[in-house]
Design brief:
Family: Belongs to the ribonucleoside diphosphate reductase class-2 family.
EC number: 1.17.4.1
Radius of gyration: 29 Å
Distance between the termini: 32 Å
Catalytic activity: a 2'-deoxyribonucleoside 5'-diphosphate + [thioredoxin]-disulfide + H2O = a ribonucleoside 5'-diphosphate + [thioredoxin]-dithiol
Function: Catalyzes the reduction of ribonucleotides to deoxyribonucleotides. May function to provide a pool of deoxyribonucleotide precursors for DNA repair during oxygen limitation and/or for immediate growth after restoration of oxygen.
Shape: globular
Number of strands: 23
Organism: Herbidospora galbida
Largest sheet: 10 strands, mixed
Structural class: alpha/beta
């Protein structure tokens, strides 16, 4: 295949002496990059998770044979443009990549980026090679919009500004809505708005920023529903010295209490429930912007002043530790607020003469000027690990140059949602290069994520990436000019560059890999400073670490952003439909790197496939366990391990890091305080935490009855009270029953539930197939205990409350269309019993619905009008057992189920995907759906 680059000819640029000279690194002269790839045709068929019906179908799509089914499905459904079934619909990855790269190359030619047309063609071919081979990916808006008739929106991250006027507040609502409509997210700092403790010019009292958050939250919720594909992503920030800071801190925690109360009163507070809309402030991440002064007062136990917004006078003094405690307590209860370290952020600000950095995008990685935006791109680090387990530094450097050039070109042709954002972005040209697959790279090279060696590699790679990016930015400044705001910010920009270089010089190297990377980074920073002094820089910002949700799946990454591996077992989609369980491919490579022989590797991998962890694996040294530690599971990485990794990379990033520090359910408020303090001491720019199971917006949180239980604890009375003993109501010899065959995470079982002929469930028998005599005996004993309890009058809904959401293996996908995922066999059994034997009103209070009832809710109908299975279950006589149909959206091969999706039990708090219904997984401080690629934040 041959191709010519469209655009302005050399004649049109005659007389221009400057321009980039581009060398071939990945491609060969005379060979088009597509011709070096093996292509194949596939069918992409996506089914509805509720009823198994087909909701997307495109057959004969073309992708490289090396691409996974999941990556091809996501690109086909999300990024191919054109109406389905029409000739205009894209059907090949070649068309998608041509559409995007064609615009980049033409714009580069037209604006004098390249020395000759030959350089432009090499740029075009190198870019296509990198994208087709999954070396990197642009953020989702590029794939959505570039080369189409839609506005050429390329940015995923936006920061807005709000002043203390009603006009500005209403503009905020409008601007946010426009951004949400386009599928992106924004952040804003509300600290300029007068507090509820200050007076208006008319003499009345101001409403305060929290009151205006209600309107913005309602708007975001409405646009989310109208947009259908993704939740509105937004960040709201308030300075720690704002007089309304305490109200802001406790806002979402109070709403979580409301969810508890309303759900316990019988309202539908499940995800997507009709009553959940009454809960406020749920469409935003909240963060407190803390200052060094405040944090020092927290350390010493001093007082801190809250200041009026207009006069900046102290109107109230508070105990800094008390306020900090309230921040940690609210985060312990509901994961909000996060913290942003204001002085650290602004100390690394390249453009302070233009204005302070006051806010961030929804995931906290983009921190720069108000009314600005940033386009993102992420490198797949594992692609640069060579067969001899060294890091290909030269190719990494060249790819970084290529990406920065392309990203800067995109600002030239990009459209923006508001005029103010367009003006600022074109004047400061903020970029956000980052990477994914760090966790996989570390494991593959035998490095623990939470280790000095792992942090040394991460720091060296990040320093190299940013050093090359700014060096290329300085080269571009010499060709097409520095950014418009550079002249007034030249000295502070140079100061920040020297800070990056000094941080690089302070890195302590550990072994050969990071020593080599660090040595190249040092060279790049020296050249960057030299060229910057001469030319200035083309971009006010170059790098950050985004969550890489959808694009991480597009690149077939094992891990997202800076995150470690989520679990050791993954689930691979198959071409013919269905899934299979596979052990992460980085594990065998890591074992070989650690010196294990092939037979040992096979035995350890087999053990991991059966147990999903390495503890007790045959022949595996305990000293090597840490290499295989993951974000969740048997050996979860400690919270401070995440904080230390962020600290190792933060000094080499222009922006910040999208990452949530996960804590176990047992974590205390003190633990969260310590994380927030260490984040400040270690020089992070932003930090968010999440305690497992802290959210109550899901069925049956164990914390629901805490207050009731506390109230029930009273001093014992001295008088004797006669209590009538319950009597056992035995089952008749002949009774109706339902037998259900089920599969949970690959474990098969049978349940027979017998009812009294006249009223209610009275007996349950459980049999687990091929599970061994011990488990069979335990299940028999459990069945007897439950049955006797039912016959003594224990209500079924009491058992349901106690056992639903209980988590242990086996867990994962079931073959029951009403209960698609179960966190354990007990979780499944009591959900099934509730569906079969409880009335709709009782189940609704518990958040348990059948597939038809969920579908009715999505259609806006009354689920109570659906078939009442409880009434059928309690009617007599009941017919002999009937095998339930098992339509599932992605059929699973029976021989390969194993612990299919069992790891999702560890992410019980993750939301369900609004597109396909699959439970999402963490990606930075956002979530991503591995089924369809939808994200809750930056893509």
């Amino acid at each position: 295949m041959t191709e010519t680059v469209n655009g302005t000819s050399t004649r049109a640029r005659r007389g221009r002496a400057k321009g980039l000279k581009v060398k071939r690194i990945f491609t060969t002269e005379g060979v088009h990059p597509y011709d070096a790839v093996e292509w194949e045709r596939r069918d992409v068929v996506m089914t509805n998770w509720r009823d198994g019906s087909v909701n997307f179908e495109q057959r004969g799509v073309e992708f490289p044979a090396a691409w996974s089914v999941n990556a091809a499905n996501i690109v086909t459904t999300k990024y191919f443009r054109g109406a389905l079934g029409t000739p205009q619909r894209e059907w090949s990855l070649k068309q998608l990549v041509d559409r995007v790269t064609g615009v980049y190359t033409r714009t580069g030619v037209e604006n004098g980026y390249f020395a000759t047309d030959e350089d432009a063609e090499i740029f075009d071919h190198e870019l296509k090679h990198a994208l087709v081979h999954q070396l990197f990916a642009f953020n989702s808006p590029v794939w959505f919009n570039v080369g189409t008739l839609s506005p050429q929106q390329v940015s995923a991250c936006f920061i807005l500004a709000v002043d203390d006027t009603m006009e500005s507040i209403l503009d905020w609502y409008k601007e946010e809505g426009v951004i949400f409509k386009g599928g992106s997210g924004s952040g804003v700092n509300l600290s300029r708005i007068r507090s509820s403790k200050e007076l208006l010019s008319s003499g009345g009292t101001a409403s305060g920023p929290v009151s205006f958050m209600r309107g913005a939250d309602a708007s975001a919720g409405t646009i989310k529903s109208g947009g259908a594909t993704r939740r509105a992503a937004k960040m709201v920030v308030l300075d720690v010295d704002h007089p309304d800071i305490e109200e802001f801190i406790e806002t979402k925690a109070r709403e979580e209490d409301k969810i508890r109360a309303l759900r316990d009163a019988g309202f539908d507070m499940d995800l997507g429930g009709k009553d959940i809309v009454s809960v406020q402030y749920q469409n935003a991440n909240n963060s407190v912007r803390v200052s060094d002064e405040f944090m020092r007062q927290v350390e010493t136990g001093g007082k801190f002043g809250l200041r009026a917004r207009l006069t900046h006078e102290v109107i109230e003094e508070i105990d800094a530790r008390d306020l900090f405690r309230k921040m940690a307590k609210a985060a312990w209860e509901c994961a909000d607020p996060g913290v942003q370290y204001d002085d650290t952020i602004n100390d690394w600000h390249t453009c302070p003469e233009t204005g302070r950095i006051t806010a961030s995008n929804p995931c906290s990685e983009y921190v720069h000027l108000d009314n600005s935006s940033c386009n993102l791109a992420s490198i797949n680090l594992l692609k640069f690990l060579t067969d001899d387990d060294t890091f290909d530094i030269a190719r990494f450097v060249k790819l970084t140059e290529l990406i920065i050039t392309a990203m800067d070109i995109s600002i030239t042709f990009a459209d923006f949602p508001t005029e103010k954002i367009g003006e600022t972005t074109r004047a400061y040209r903020q970029l956000g290069i980052g990477y994914a697959n760090l966790g996989a790279l570390l494991m593959a090279t035998g490095h623990a994520y939470d280790s000095d060696g792992g942090r040394a590699i991460a720091g060296a790679i990040t320093s190299l990436m940013t050093g090359v990016s700014y060096r290329r930015s300085a080269e571009l400044a010499g060709i097409v000019g520095a950014y418009d705001g550079y002249e007034r910010n030249a000295e502070p920009h140079k100061r920040v560059m020297r800070k990056h270089a000094a941080a690089n010089d302070a890195v302590r190297t550990i072994d050969a890999m990071d020593k080599a990377i660090h040595a190249e980074a040092t060279k790049q920073w020296q050249e960057c400073l030299k060229l910057g002094d001469k030319n200035g820089w083309r971009n006010a910002q170059a790098s950050l670490l985004a969550p890489t949700g959808t694009i991480g799946l597009m690149m077939d990454c094992d891990t997202t952003g800076i995150e470690p591996d989520l679990a050791l077992v993954k689930f691979k989609k198959l071409v013919g439909g269905g899934s299979m369980q596979i052990v992460n491919q980085t594990i065998p490579r890591a074992l070989r790197q650690l010196g294990y022989q092939e037979e040992q590797v096979e035995a350890i991998v087999e053990y991991i496939a059966q147990n999903s962890h390495v503890v007790g694996a045959p022949g595996l040294k305990e000293a090597h366990y840490e290499v295989f530690d993951c974000a969740m599971g048997e050996r979860a990485i400690a919270p401070m391990g995440h904080v230390r990794m962020m600290a190792a990379t933060q000094p080499f990033l222009s922006g910040a890091i999208s990452k949530t520090v996960n804590l176990p359910e047992s974590a205390t408020i003190d633990d969260i305080e310590q994380v927030y303090l260490e984040g400040w001491r270690l020089g992070l720019k932003a930090l968010a935490v999440y305690r497992d199971n802290c959210k109550v917006g899901q069925p049956l949180s164990a914390g629901n009855n805490k207050k009731t239980e506390e109230a029930a604890v009273v001093e014992p009375e001295t008088k004797v009270i006669e209590v009538s003993r319950p009597t056992r109501r035995r089952m008749p010899n002949s009774r109706p029953s339902i037998t259900t065959r089920f599969t949970v995470g690959g474990a098969k079982g049978y349940m027979t539930a017998s009812s009294y002929p006249d009223d209610g469930l009275g007996e349950v028998f459980l049999k687990m197939s091929k599970q061994g005599s011990t488990l069979a005996g335990v299940m028999d004993a459990f069945s007897v205990a439950i049955s006797i309890g039912l016959q003594y009058g224990v209500p079924l809904d009491t058992y349901v409350q106690k056992f639903v959401n209980m988590r242990f293996e086996p867990a994962g996908m079931t073959d029951d269309p009403d209960v698609r995922m179960a966190q354990s066999v007990m979780d499944y059994i009591f959900r099934r019993l509730a569906l079969d034997h409880l009335a709709y009103e009782d189940r609704a209070a518990l958040g348990i619905f059948s597939a038809s009832e969920r579908a009715a809710q999505q259609r806006g109908e009354d689920p109570a009008a659906q078939l009442d299975t409880a009434a059928l279950a309690q009617s007599a006589p009941i017919e002999p057992p009937v095998t339930k149909p098992v339509p599932i959206a992605e059929p699973v091969r029976a021989s390969q189920q194993g612990h299919l999706e069992g790891h999702q039990g560890f992410t019980a708090d993750a939301p369900l995907c609004m597109t396909c219904g699959t439970k999402m997984r963490p990606a930075g401080s956002c979530y991503v759906c591995e089924g369809c690629g939808s994200t809750s934040g930056c893509s």
